[in-house]
Amino acid sequence: MNFSTLPKIELHCHLDGSLRAETIIDIAKKEGISLPAMVKEEIQSELVAPLDCECLDDYLKRFAIPNLVMQTMENLRRITFELFEDAAQENVKYMEVRFAPLLHTAKGLTVEEIIQSVLDGMEDAKAQFDIEGNIILSCMRTMSVESAFEVVEKGKAFLGKGVVAIDLCASEEEGFCGKFIEPIALAREYGYRVTIHAGETGIGKNVLEAVELLEAERIGHGVFIKDCPDAYNIVKEKQIVLEMCPTSNVQTKAVNQFNEHPIFHFHQDGIKVTINTDNRTVSDTTMEKECTIVANEFHISEAVYQQIYLTSVEASFADAATKEKLRKYF
C-alpha cells in the first residue's frame, strides 16, 4: 500500500507537539527568545523524544521549548496553519487538533484570543488546501479543577465555530477521572463532545472510569485496557473508539516495541481503533509513517485499512456533511 496517496484521517494530534523546527528558530530570533540551539538539526534533537524514553513524563519534557514560541496570536495562527499544511501535503483529508489554551497565557493573551488564533490558522489552511478540520480543547490534569471549568466556560462561545470537544491530558495518575467529573459534565451539557487521555500508562482502570464517570466517547491511547478486563469489556461493548498512536506508545513505554502494540489484536476482536501521530515533531512522525508501521508490523490489507479509515470517519466529531465527503474518498 502506498500511504502517501491513500486518504488519511487523524483524530489525535497535539498542536504543541507538532511544530516545525524552522518555525521555532524563526520566531525565537524575531522575539529574542533564548533556545538551547539555533540550528535546525540541533534544536530537532531537543524536540524529538527518543524511542527509548524512560516513560510518559520523560516524553512530555519535549513540550517546554515549543511553548516558548506559542504565546502570541500571530504565532499560534501560523503554527496551526503550518500543521494543517503539513497534514494536507501527505493526503490527510480531515484532522482534529487538540491543545491546552491555558499553556499560552504567559504573555497576557486571553483564553478567547488563544482559541480564536488557532481557529484562524485552521481556517487559513482549509481555504488553501484540500483538508477539513476541527479543534479540541484540552484541560491539563496537572492543573486545578477550576482551570478545567475556565476552559469549558471560555471555549463555549466557539462551539459550532470549529471547536468540537473537550479533553483531559498530561501526566496520568490513577483515579484522575473522579476529580474532573463536574467540569466534564458541564462540557457535555454545553454540547462539547468528550475524548479523554486514559490508559496510556499502565492504568487500564482509568479507561473504565473515563467511560463510566466522564462518559467519554473516545479514548486517547487506551493501550492498557489489555490488562484490565472491565475496561476492555466496556470499551468493546459500548464501541468506545481508541485513538491509538503507535510510535508515541513505544516512546512512552506503553509498549516495548511495535510488534507488541495491541492495535491489530483490538481491531480483530471488534474494538474500534484509529491510527494517529499524537505529536508529529516529538515523535518524529507523520500519518504516512504511522499507517506504514501498522501495515508492515501486522500485514494488514487495504480492506482492513479502509475499515480503520471509515471507523475514523464515523468517530470524528465532524458534522454529517463533512463525514459524507470523507466517506467518498474510499
TrEMBL record:
The record marks 221 as: Important for catalytic activity. CDD domains: ADA (cd01320). The keyword Hydrolase applies. Its EC number is 3.5.4.4. The active site is at 200 (proton donor). Zn(2+) binds at residues 12, 14, 197, 278. Residues 7-327 form the Adenosine deaminase domain. Substrate binds at residues 14, 16. GO terms for cellular component: cytosol. It catalyses: adenosine + H2O + H(+) = inosine + NH4(+); 2'-deoxyadenosine + H2O + H(+) = 2'-deoxyinosine + NH4(+). GO terms for molecular function: adenosine deaminase activity; zinc ion binding. It is an enzyme of class 3 (hydrolase). Its cofactor is Zn(2+). PANTHER family: ADENOSINE DEAMINASE. This is Adenosine deaminase. It comes from Neobacillus novalis.
